[in-house]
Every structure is written in C-alpha cells, then in structure tokens.
C-alpha cells in the first residue's frame, strides 16, 4: 500500500496514529471480498513508498457474515445528519462489541445518562478548542470542496450537510462557522443519537492503531449491514488535554481511539473514491 499524504482533517494532533488506523480499514476489505485470509504488517516509516503490506493467505469459502460485510462496503458512508429517535437493536450493539474484540480492540457503549451528558460536554469543549484554532480551520477548508468538484478525495460539501449553492463556497465554509455554533450542534447530535460508542485498545502503539482500523471497518460494515449509520465525534480524543478527562468519564482501562454515534437516518450520497491503483500496489519484490 503506497504511503499517502494525510487525507483527512481532524487528526492534526494524532498524525502519528492515523496512517495505521486507516490501513486497518483497508485490510479487512480484501479478506471479505475474496474469501482469502489476509495479514497486514506495518512497514517502518523509513520505507518511503509503502506504508503497509497486505498478504493474502489461503483461500476459504466466504462465510455468510463475510458476504454480508462485503455487500455493505458500497452502502457504507459517514452519515453526519441527525438520526431518528429509535434505538439500535441491543443485539447489534453486542455484535459490534464482538466485532471489536475479534480485531483486538474493545468497544464501550455509553449507556449511563450522566456519562452520555459528560461525553456530550467534552465533545462541545473539543469543538470550541479546535474551531478556535486557525490552523485547524485552514486544514478543514483544504479538505472540503464544492459538490461538483472532480476531486476523488476530500469531503464534498454535501457530505457535511451543505446544500449545493452554499457548497459552491465550501472552501470558505469552515472559516465562517462560529466555534460555539459547531459545539452546540455536535452536543445536540451526541445527546440525540440513539447510541454513542467508544472504540479503544489496551495498548497505544502501531499494532493497536492497526487493530483499531480493522475493528472500525468491521464495526461500520456490520452496522451498515443492519441498516445502521455511523459518524464520528472524536473531538475529546483528538484534543490532547481532553483525552485523559474523557478516559476517566468512559471508565474503561486502556486507550481511547475513536468515538462514534450510531443510528437510523436518511440515506446520504456516497463520497468520491480514489482509484484502487492510487492506493494499492499489486505486488512488489
Ligand atoms: C479513522 C477515521 C477518523 C475519522 N474522523 C472523522 C471526524 O473526526 N469527523 C468527521 O466528520 N469524519 C471523520 N472521518 C470520516 C472521513 O472523513 C470519511 O470516512 C471520509 O471523508 C470518506 O467518506 P465516507 O466515510 O462517507 O466514505 C474519519 C474517518 C476515519 C477512517
């Protein structure tokens, strides 16, 4: 897998972690698609052109679960809209916990109302810190583009809930949003979402980040296969001074990696994809 320049905003303060995390999401896909076992290994940063090696192992008949996850790949996208006031099935949450464990991570479901409120407050506080940072806004603006743009990466305005006309100016959009407005919006999303979950690992090294990516992909695909959407509320993990406070609130021993909300909602348009050949080198010596 070629080394890619960072392709996402929001992780400014976690850049060391985001490559393996994203490699992990790529690693699960070939396993589901081909019915082959696959192993990913992280290559040292010094190996400039590749960031991970995915080796296909022996073939096996794809299980019903692998087929379901594979079919969910084209239906999965980040859905940032408000979700319906309808709980996710308890059985699904249990399945998502198992999906995380299967990949070497853990998933904590925020059920207690006090913890949910404290989580929503920390998300809002994270927004206020991030949105007061000009560098954060600039990076976000560089990733957001008009709906009809031909770029195959980044985030089109419509995926952020920006209508066609406003999306025309999406590169300016992140400069115009008031920090308090974003904080209030995300606080409401967190409190209004049927399920808030935190993905974490026991350790916080490259192997754990890879496991997080794999667990994330399995969770997102399992949720989508059950018609449930997800989006990210990572602010209290991304902002270093909030991370230990959030860990105390969640109360799970280990390292928090991502915070997601889950629920039912309206369909959203898919975002563009880069060509496979831009991100995967088929074989090398
Ligand atoms: C590890 C990881 C962290 C992410 N964090 C955020 C985030 O904090 N906020 C957000 O809006 N999207 C976040 N995203 C979503 C990406 O922006 C999104 O996956 C990407 O733009 C592709 O769009 P899609 O998910 O709709 O296919 C994250 C994605 C990954 C894999």
Tell me about this structure.
- This protein is α+β, with helices and mostly antiparallel strands and 285 residues long.
- The chain is built from 12 helices and 8 strands.
- The protein has helices at residues 15-34, 64-72, 90-102, 113-131, 134-143, 164-167, 173-176, 179-192, 206-225, 235-238, 243-250, 276-279, and strands at 36-42, 52-59, 106-110, 144-145, 155-156, 195-201, 229-232, 255-263.
- The protein starts with 14 loop residues before the first helix and ends in a 6-residue tail after the last helix.
- The model is unreliable at 1-17 (pLDDT under 50).
- The chain binds flavin mononucleotide (FMN).
- Flavin mononucleotide binds next to helix 1.
Which terms would index this structure?
single chain, 285 residues, alpha+beta, NADH Oxidase, two-stranded antiparallel ribbon, globular, disordered N terminus
What is the fourth-level CATH superfamily of the domain at 77-274? NADH Oxidase
Assembly state (oligomeric): single chain
Figure out the total of helices.
12
Give the class-level CATH name of the domain at 77-274.
Alpha Beta
Task: Give the topology string: H per helix, E per strand.
Answer: HEEHHEHHEEHHHEHEHHEH
Strand order of the largest sheet: 3-6-8-7
CATH architecture classification name of the domain at 77-274: 3-Layer(aba) Sandwich
- How much of the sequence lies in strands comes to 15-25%
Bound ions, cofactors and other small molecules, one mention each? flavin mononucleotide
- What is the arithmetic mean of pLDDT? 84
CATH topology of the domain at 77-274: NADH Oxidase
**Global outline:** globular
Query: Can you give the helix content as a percent range?
Result: 40-55%
Structural class: alpha+beta
Count of strand segments: 8
Main sheet makeup = 4 strands, antiparallel
Could you tell me how far the N terminus lies from the C terminus, measured between alpha carbons in angstroms?
13 Å
Radius of gyration: 18 Å
- Segments where pLDDT lies below 50 for 5+ residues? 1-17
